[in-house]
Amino acid sequence: MVVKVGILGAGYIGGVHARTLRRDDRVNLVGIADIRREAAERLAAEVGTRALPDLAAVLHEGALAVYVTTPNAHHVEPVVAALEAGVHVFSEKPMATTLDGARRVAAAAARSKALYQLGFNRRWAPAYAFVHDLIARGELRPAMAHVKMNRGELQNPPWVSTTSLTGGFLYESTIHLLDMCRYLLGEIAAVTCQARTTAYQEPDGFAAVLRCAGGALVTFHSCAHATWAFPFERIEIFGPHQAVVTEEMDRVTVSPGLGREVTTRAYAQLPMEEKWGYRAEDAKFVDAILEGRRPGVTAEDGLRATELVEACYRSVRTAAEVALPLA
Q1: What pLDDT digit, counting tens, does each position of 54-71 carry?
Q2: pLDDT confidence of 327, banded at 50, 70, 90?
Q3: DSSP 8-state symbol, 72
Q4: In terms of CB atoms within 10 Å, which end of the chain has fewer, N or C?
Q5: Ranges in the chain annotated CATH 3.30.360.10
């Protein structure tokens, strides 16, 4: 069976998915839609498909699945429409830019017979998958962690500093590592957060403490104007005389105990779409459609990540700890 796929959004991340899907023999790209006709035409020509005007045209082409890769604030409506039409949906992060929006998507996914998968690509990145497996096997018992997720700027793409489109800086790259905290360390029980406004017209620097339900304590830092100094993202996890450190998705250093050998696993030479997890997440989405499987990242995961972002903003506003899940 060949899965007919359409893509809504011809920006950078739409292009990443289009080029990855083009190499999957199980996929037929039926069209690229974007409100910027020239962008849709350029990407469609590159991947050998048609430029289309909107979601309705994509569905008219018989798409069995739709990728929603539009700016953040424009995810909810096309996702809900596609799910209600019985079409499988891969949505880029974030699920939504409000808690109400995330709940709408979750409800639509629960009602639909179609699948919904969210684009937390780092769950599929080999570096983070390796750390997850260490924890799952009991070889790393997390007690403390420090997580950094920075951006060099909010200038590219041009809309990324427009809060009405992004939902706020935390809904941009930062949400990936907030999700990673939950993925690696389990449910988050409470958040305390402070913020500063320095380079942009919104809070663009955050320092938070996350209390995990399983007992681990996380300090979390995210800055929107940090330059792209390596590594812009880093996770340090500490257990009893144990340490694991990631540097972007390029390498993982493991110190398994006192007097034991420290080892490093390197992924820097992998192709970007493999190192960053895009190839695996797209392949797994197609697997889920063809095999009727539960998708790798669910609506529940998206809702919990949205709650984490909203809890951070709420803590900033109230100067108080915020318990999760949100009421």
Answers
A1: 999 999 999 999 999 999
A2: confident
A3: G
A4: C
A5: 123-271+306-323
**Cα 17 → chain centroid:** 13
Per the CB < 8 A criterion, the answer to whether 3 and 27 are in contact is yes
**Which single residue is written with the structure tokens 């190499």?**
23
**Greatest extent of the chain over all pairs of C-alpha atoms, in Å:** 63
Provide the residue type at 257 as one letter: G
How far, in Å, CA of 217 to CA of 189, rounded? 10
pLDDT tens profile 22-58: 999 999 999 999 999 999 999 999 999 999 999 999 9
Express each pLDDT in 256-281 by its tens digit. 999 999 999 999 999 999 999 999 99
Question: Strands 242-247 and 88-92, how do they pair?
Answer: unpaired
Fold of 123-271+306-323: Dihydrodipicolinate Reductase; domain 2 (3.30.360)
Tell me: the pLDDT tens digits for 142-190? 999 999 999 999 999 999 999 999 999 999 999 999 999 999 999 999 9
- Give 135-195 as a DSSP string: HHTTS---SEEEEEE--S-S-SSGGGG-HHHHSSGGGTTHHHHHHHHHHHH--EEEEEEEE
The answer, yes or no, to whether the previous bond of 78 is cis (omega within 30 of 0) is no
Where would I find the H helices in 167-298?
A: 174-185, 272-275, 278-291
Class at the top of the CATH hierarchy for domain 3-121+278-298: alpha beta
Scored b (16 or more CB within 10 A) or e, 275-300 reads bbbbbbbbbbbbebbeeeeebbbbbe
